[in-house]
Design goal:
Four copies of one chain form a homotetramer. Chain A is mainly alpha-helical. Chain A has helices at 9-22, 35-42, 46-58, 76-102, 107-124; strands at 62-65, 69-72. Chain A has two domains: 9-76, Winged helix-like DNA-binding domain superfamily/Winged helix DNA-binding domain (Arc Repressor Mutant, subunit A); 77-124. Chain A has a two-stranded antiparallel sheet. The two termini of chain A are 19 Å apart. The first copy, chain A, binds a DNA duplex through α3.
DNA sequence: GTGGTCTAGACCACG
DNA sequence: GTGGTCTAGACCACC
């Protein structure tokens, strides 16, 4: 896996996990890869995965069964949506609107890109 | 002025300057505040303003007349739009579309917020 | 049975056994549940129960009759009180007093809660 | 500084900081020692102090001024009391009451120890 | 096997 | 100077 330069790896690992859940690749109730396993898969230090799992645990997306591993909580998807929407509405969206206004970009252009994006996603499925 | 946690202050200072220009508060050809003055106004370290001006100079938005100060270049607005659009289309927008897709946010919601945003901007003018 | 996060499960299992004895639910001289039985009842790994019984054996609260099972020793209650009081006075209480002092909690508040606690216990009997 | 065996060092460092505040040795609004400084003072790895500060920042006891250091928030004492009281009432107190009941310890004994504790504290002041 | 913690040492962006 | 991040490697308790 490749990581973006401008965001901390542990944060991207956490996002990776949430995406697996949101895309239905990992299911609520299931065990997720162990710290060492995911670290090996993603070619990062176990410490970094620990930090990512720690964040997800705080957000009540995953939970630790001692001595066994981490499991996806049954209401993980709702939690992810709640956190994500809060962030989107409070931070991302205001930035987006400001950029659109200042750069003189119309909503039609965004709508078009969004359609293209969704089409591409469905193709790769 | 208050700064967002997730972005470097010098970067937000640079954005502040470009916004003044885009909003027509500071005009091309005019002199902008001295490093010390802006640092004092925004309550930041002068070092930080130097770095912001440095970036804007690299982007050919402002120019330094030695011993006098920094001036907004005549084609600053075009430069800002070019840089801004590139960044927006290449980096910000893809992230946003992904969030919208995963969080199940429709384009209509964005369109509505955008209208509200534009209305509010015009009121404050 | 639910377990507290901050304490090892085997330790809580051991506490569970001592409580059954102190509350008179299990009597000195009697046989206690087999490792497998208790593990099944409490939904824990048999390994964990083994460890708990091991500790209680060391503290001379229970004793193993090979091939038959574990039995509560006749002086179990005295042993439990001795161990418990030592731990309470030497470790738990000092921490608690410090917390009470720093958080500005009065002894009256504790006394009141204690009365309520005792009343509730007697009701459930 | 010496650390207890049964509690993580980072947690004890966090407690150390809160105690300095509660005892009035460090004041709200003031800067606390830098990560490296405290790590050196307490003879621990800087990483460990980072983790402690991270927790305190989450609890809104301290706040980071970028490039300068961590500062005690003005309402730190209230925050500490709130967190502490919640923990005490929800976790420590129930344990305390149970121990008192099972070990047959009276409230008078606790009261006496508490008085002794407070007297000793005042002497060392 | 699992996660949790700690150290040592390095590099980086930021102010 | 400040904090933030990452790695490598080790040890531990627990299940």
């Amino acid at each position: 896996m490749e990581f973006r330069e401008n965001e901390a790896i542990y944060s991207q690992v956490a996002s990776f996990v949430t995406e697996q859940i949101m895309l239905g690749k990992w299911l609520p109730g299931d065990k997720i890869p162990s710290v060492r396993e995911l670290a090996s898969d993603l070619q990062v230090n176990p410490h970094t995965v620990v930090r990512a799992y720690d964040i997800l645990q705080t957000k009540e997306v995953i939970s630790n069964k001692r001595g066994i591993g981490f499991f996806i909580l049954t209401d993980a998807i709702e939690k992810i949506k709640a956190f994500g929407k809060e962030r989107f509405m409070g931070q991302d969206l205001p930035e987006l609107l400001k950029s659109m206004y200042l750069l003189d970009i119309g909503i039609e252009e965004i709508a078009e890109k969004f359609e293209t994006y969704k089409t591409n996603i469905n193709k790769t499925k």
